[in-house]
Amino acid sequence: MSSHSSSSGLRYTTTAMALHWVLALGLVGTFALGVYMHELPFSPWRLKLYNWHKWAGVTILALSLVRLVWRITHRPPALPAAMEAAMPAWQRKAHHATHHALYALFFVVPLVGWAYSSAAGFPVVVFGVLPLPDFVPVDKALAELIKPWHEITALSLAGLVVLHVAAALKHQLIDRDGLLTRMWPGR
């Protein structure tokens, strides 16, 4: 059986869909956890949440690498010709720019978080058993420089995710062009 969910080739592969939705859930959950834990007072619970947040970040980084390799080795389906023709040029450019920025931030956000954690002297130990090497040397001044960039890049990623969802909903509910079904599991 083909790896495409549809013989028409207009849909993403099952693997691409699975990676998309697993990463989507992971990103939303990790962002929500980051916002929640950031405001907590120092406590064992907060430290546990920070570890979970780091584990999620490393997992997102690994899945993003798998997704990027999949995307490079499995060409995504082209937009249907009629849809492509109906889209204004600015919308096609925004579509491509948003996807490129999303992919970049899938890597930048966790790498900046890892750099901050390393510089602050808090090693990343995945699932409490796999210590990762420090991404940068321990340096409190460097940590203070890096810290806001994790938040800035995470907020940028969240904004692009909201924009991506809004565009998908616009295509589904206003344009009614079926674009969302290309990435939606099932038939």
Structure explained in plain terms:
By secondary structure, the chain is mainly α. 68% of the residues lie in helices and 2% in strands. The chain is built from five helices and two strands, in the order H-H-H-H-E-E-H. It has helices spanning 14-38, 44-73, 81-86, 89-119, 140-175; strands at residues 125-126, 130-131. Strands 1-2 form a two-stranded antiparallel ribbon. Strand 1 and strand 2 (130-131) form a beta hairpin. The two termini are 15 Å apart.
What percent of residues adopt helix (DSSP H or I)? 55-70%
Sequence of strands across the biggest β-sheet: 1-2
Q: Determine the N-to-C terminus distance.
A: 15 Å
Secondary-structure element sequence?
HHHHEEH
CATH class equals Mainly Alpha
Structural class by sheet pairing and helices: mainly alpha
Alpha carbon gyration radius: 19 Å
Number of strand segments: 2
